[in-house]
Amino acid sequence: MTAEEVAEELMVSQSKISRLENGRRSISQRDVRDLCRTYKVEDKALVDSLMQMAKESRQQGWWNAFGDVPYSVYIGFETDAASLRVYEPQVLPGLLQTPEYAEAVISGALPEAPQDQIAQRVQVRLRRQERITDPLAPLRLWAVVDEAAMRRVVGNSKIMSDQLDYLVRMSHEPHVTVQALPFDMGSHPGMSGQFTILEFSDESDTSVVYLEGVTSDLYLEKLSDVQSYSMMYEHLRAQALNADQSRQFITEMAQEHARRHQEESEAAPAD
Length: 271
Prior knowledge:
It holds the Pfam family DUF5753. Residues 1-46 form the HTH cro/C1-type domain. This protein is α/β, with parallel strands linked by helices. The protein contains 11 helices and 6 strands. It has helices spanning 3-10, 14-21, 29-38, 44-57, 72-80, 99-109, 115-128, 147-151, 157-171, 223-239, 243-267, and strands at 83-88, 140-146, 176-181, 195-199, 208-211, 218-220. Strands 3-2-1-4-5-6 form a 6-stranded mixed β-sheet, with helices on both faces.
């Protein structure tokens, strides 16, 4: 059977089959079970053995040291990716977050989560950021960020001011581009929500579009889907401020939060 035939049988993309065969994507026990059915493997002992191997193989990523990470599939893609194109309408990009901002974001998103779970997720996020500073193969990151994400007070005004200053500093890295999308740019193709396009150095690996959900995530690998989101991203980049204008815009946002923090400090009653 060709990879195309297998993909059609399992109703998945051909690139997924190619990644599994080349060891470029971790394989789940469900993948093994479905492939064995497709290949008509009837030896139950062999199938069970392969499924056990699949379970053990998924424990090799660095993120498994942090326990059960719900978006481990995405982290695997991100770890292998050569570049990311990100659009964020509500929060600042995870790979460019300060520890304080990350903790405030996660705490707000998971109000009933215990503190140890929040701390675990913060540590995973900070570990992911090492790809940005990797001296040998830094991740190429292009982020378009909506003004709403910069104005939303996550944590407090001091955290926001520090976070936006950090965003400006990171935007000076040669492999990091940050563009601000102000409110007065009006409607745009990204109004339906956040998305990330992951691209890989191996030409046999097609790009993947990642859509984050509350209880489950969506990965789009069909060429037509990737092309649609890539076109959306080009329109977003065209409507957003350029890199220099964005730094000025973000700096002004940081100064606004800093002034608010100063006013709040002065208004606070003395002990």
